[in-house]
Amino acid sequence: MDEMTTRPAGEPRNVEAGRGTGWWTEGWALFTKNAGLWIVLGLILLVVFVVLSFIPFIGWLATSLLAPVFIGSWMLAARKVEGGGTLEVGDLFLAFKGEQMTQLLVVGALLLAGTFVIALVVGMLGFGAAAGMMAGDHSGSAGGMMAAAGAGMLAFLVMMALGVLVAMAFWFAPALVVFRNVAPVDAMKSSFAACLKNIVPMLVYGVLYILAAIVASIPFGLGWIVLVPLVLLTIYVSYKDIYGA
Asked: For the whole model, what pTM was predicted?
């Protein structure tokens, strides 16, 4: 088994708001260096997750655990291409080895735990909303039904807010593990701090992502064939920008 030396994540730097746009343009430049093979890797990744989705429970569990490992591999492949290396299909599995894979699986387990907490909280709020609507319906109380509908909206907003927090903790974590050998918990803490420190460029990036997702979805969702690998490359670009290496 390969040995990994754990070291601090380093202090993430603060970048200007315009970098939220720059991550897209630089990610696109990296994508166009070998667009065809990036798309192939994205399709392979999609097929893997689709196949796993057909396996009850275990497939969902495996998807959550393996996602950081695949993203870690993508980060290594992006650095390889940026350095002038040749992209290969096998690069999708670069992080599937030794202690590095173990650490990324731990990140996946932490992500899974965060997702479970979100589902639990939202489920409790949703159950309360459903019970309130049923009570309001039986009693004929419009006020009760309105209150229950408000509780349902609250459940949705809570889900979105908690989802953003989990995404912030996960965004740079795989890159920190594969490039700096940062321990999983420390990687997620550093990722969250980096996103919070750069909340404005992250918001700019997020708005552009929403627009790109809408455009990608118009032609029968075919645009996602390009958008998925591009988004993964923007993660690498933003990591390099904020952490330096």
From this structure: 0.84
